[in-house]
Amino acid sequence: MVANIEFEGGVLLRLTCDFYVDQRNTHQKGMEFHGDGGSLLLRGWHDFDAPLEIAAFREEPRPVKPLREPYAGVEWGRAVRDLAAAIRERRPHRATGQQAAHVVEILCAARASYEKGGTVELVSSFEPPAPMSWAE
User: Fold this and answer.
1) Cβ count near 53 (within 10 Å)
2) Do residues 54 and 64 touch, judged by C-beta distance below 8 A?
3) How far apart are CA 91 and CA 94, in angstroms?
């Protein structure tokens, strides 16, 4: 799937994703973010300790040092633990229903755009959560 997305602030995104191709048949293993000034390369989309690299335009990637020691593997319970902490602390939790609904609307709009041709305006939105305390 390939989708062109324009964010509310004017940032443009070309999203390319594929769950059809087996990992043995591709060189793409992680996620890549490319912009006018450079690129971010996340070497794995799954593990919390996947290496991250940054590259200025037309330069070789270099490692980005983590802010803290990364969790090895996948911390499956992190979202549930954060939800419980948010309830105790009486603060909004990080993964809201509004955010999930917005993601679903984006996916449905991409399909509608493909089927009908043309752009599809979204009606949903959500307030992004504040950074975690260790990331500020």
Assistant:
1) 16
2) yes
3) 9
Task: Quote the DSSP letter at residue 115.
Answer: H
The tokens of 84 are what?
A: 């419980």
d(CA 112, CA 74): 33
The model's pLDDT over 10-49, given as tens digits with 9 standing for 90+, comes to: 888 888 877 777 767 776 778 889 988 899 999 988 889 9
Which residues on adjacent β-strands are paired with residue 41?
32, 53
Q: Which amino acid is at 129?
A: P
User: pTM for this structure?
Assistant: 0.73
Is residue 32 a contact partner of residue 18, using CB atoms and an 8 Å limit?
no
Q: Give the Cα separation of 52 and 84 in Å (integer).
A: 29
d(CA 99, CA 124): 9
CA distance 115 to 113: 6
